[in-house]
Every structure is written in C-alpha cells, then in structure tokens.
Amino acid sequence: MIRRILTYPDPELKKKSAPVTIINEKITELVRDMAETMYDAPGVGLAAPQIGVHQRVIVIDISPKGEKPDLIVAINPVIIHTEGNSYEEEGCLSVPQYGASVKRHASVVVKALNLAGEEVTYRADGLLAIAFQHELDHLDGILFVDHLSPLKKDIFKKKYRQLVEQSRVGE
Ligand code: NI
Hints:
Blueprint: H1 25-40, E1 45-47, E2 57-60, E3 72-83, E4 86-92, E5 95-104, E6 107-113, E7 119-125, H2 126-139, H3 150-169
Antiparallel strand pairs: 1-2, 2-3, 3-6, 4-5, 6-7
C-alpha cells in the first residue's frame, strides 16, 4: 500500500524513532509499504518516520532508472565506521522541490538487520553512502536541511514557503 509521505515542517519528522524489537508480520508489511511508496514517489530512499511510523527502518534503492531494482532493507541500522568527506547536492521526499549540498562522510560502514533478522554489513561509498547517512538521520528526527548553515537555512525557509504557496495556487 502506498502511504502518504509527510512533508516539512510536519513535527512528526522531528521525532526520534525507536529500535525494532521484534521482526514480525507488521514489520514485513511496513517494509513492503515503504518500498512501494519509495518506488512510486519515486525516490532513492525512505525512512519509516517519513510515513509517520517511528521505528528504525529504512529502505534504499540507488539502482539506475530502468534497471533491475536492488532494494536494501536496513532495520536498526548503525554507522560503525566513517571515512573522508563529501559535499553533494541532496533532496528529500519530505522536502519536495528543494535541493542543497550537504557535508557528509565519503564512505561509511553500516551494520543492520535484514527482514530475516540476520546481521548485514554494508560498505558504502558514493551515492549509497550519502543515502545511508541521509536516511539514518531521519530516524533521529534530522532532515538534510538541518545540516545547512543558519544563513542558508533561513534562505531555505523563505524559498520553501514560497514554493509551498505557489504549489497551493496551482491546485
Ligand atoms: Ni529524506
């Protein structure tokens, strides 16, 4: 089922998510809905709090459009190692029509559980490393725009308000 994606400044997006304690049918269903919602949007990643579920679950698929899907499901993900720096433009399904460059680690090692409850380790760089950091942030109530300098965040807020008003006029 495609769920509604919450958008900034919804306060639900600022809440910290709780670890998954048991991987049951509910979690399987949540992951299925999250993947469906992400592919429909379309986006390269989605975190459970973006659909209003405050559990530490993320889905990512960075495979190029038109190619075979390559879905990553990470439950209770933790970054255990980071290296280097990157500064790339990001966007977010919860902050539609806005993009900005954000400072991240260039590569990360992430430990998580898969849907079978097995521990999986991902060594990621490039877009996948950024996607992991971006989605993990969501689990702690952090949006990519929260990484902007105070001045840039101010500009974002003004620009975003205008964008929202414009899109309302168009409705
Ligand atoms: Ni996002």
